[in-house]
């Protein structure tokens, strides 16, 4: 939300032309109720890949996850574990391990004085790490650097639903 407040019209247009344009609509901190998460975890039957509702198990498939998140389910595979040490986005960070705080700091430091496309790539990387592929250490998955560092128009060719589903399972 803080980053959304500093975006220029040029940034917004660039981001809006990617599968992650919906990030622009985030206007407050998103939270999921702890009790709802607890109830969902309690009702999930792993061997049946579904939730127990009454006496029935309602299946929950990859397609359901992707539709709910607005992600496509076909396209090129994304390898989030792929090691990458080079690239334009990587050059913004001195350390080998990059975390969410470092992404925020970089975005806030370079709000309107940086190259628009680079700023937008960092923004999308932050969105992916915050919403779709978070981890307890707050680190950025190495493989995302090489995918996001490509042409922003190519982001629509990836199977984002598949990577999210694989990561969650």
Entry keywords:
169 residues; mainly alpha; three-stranded antiparallel beta sheet
Supply the number of helical segments. 7
Strand order of the largest sheet: 1-2-3
Number of domains: 1
Mean pLDDT: 84
Instruction: Please give the number of β-strands.
Output: 3
Low-confidence sequence ranges? none
Separation of the first and last Cα atoms: 28 Å
The helix-and-strand class reads mainly alpha
Could you tell me the strand content as a percent range? 5-15%
What percentage of residues falls in helices of 4 or more residues? 40-55%
Q: What quaternary form is this? A: single chain
Radius of gyration: 17 Å
Main beta sheet strand tally, sense and closure: 3 strands, antiparallel
């Amino acid at each position: 939300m803080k980053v959304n407040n500093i975006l220029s019209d040029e940034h917004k247009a660039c981001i809006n032309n990617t599968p992650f344009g919906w990030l622009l609509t985030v206007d407050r901190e998103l939270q999921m109720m702890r009790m709802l998460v607890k109830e969902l975890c309690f009702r999930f039957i792993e061997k049946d890949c579904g939730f127990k509702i009454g006496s029935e198990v309602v299946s929950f498939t990859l397609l359901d996850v992707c539709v709910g998140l607005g992600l496509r389910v076909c396209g090129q595979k994304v390898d989030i574990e792929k090691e990458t040490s080079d690239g334009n986005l990587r050059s913004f960070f001195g350390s080998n391990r990059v975390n969410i705080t470092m992404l925020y700091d970089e975005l806030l430091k370079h709000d309107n004085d940086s190259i628009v496309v680079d700023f937008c790539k960092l923004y999308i990387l932050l969105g992916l790490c915050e919403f779709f592929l978070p981890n307890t250490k707050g680190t950025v998955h190495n493989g995302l650097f090489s995918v996001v560092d490509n042409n922003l128009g190519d982001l629509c060719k990836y199977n984002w639903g598949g990577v999210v589903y694989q990561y969650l399972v």
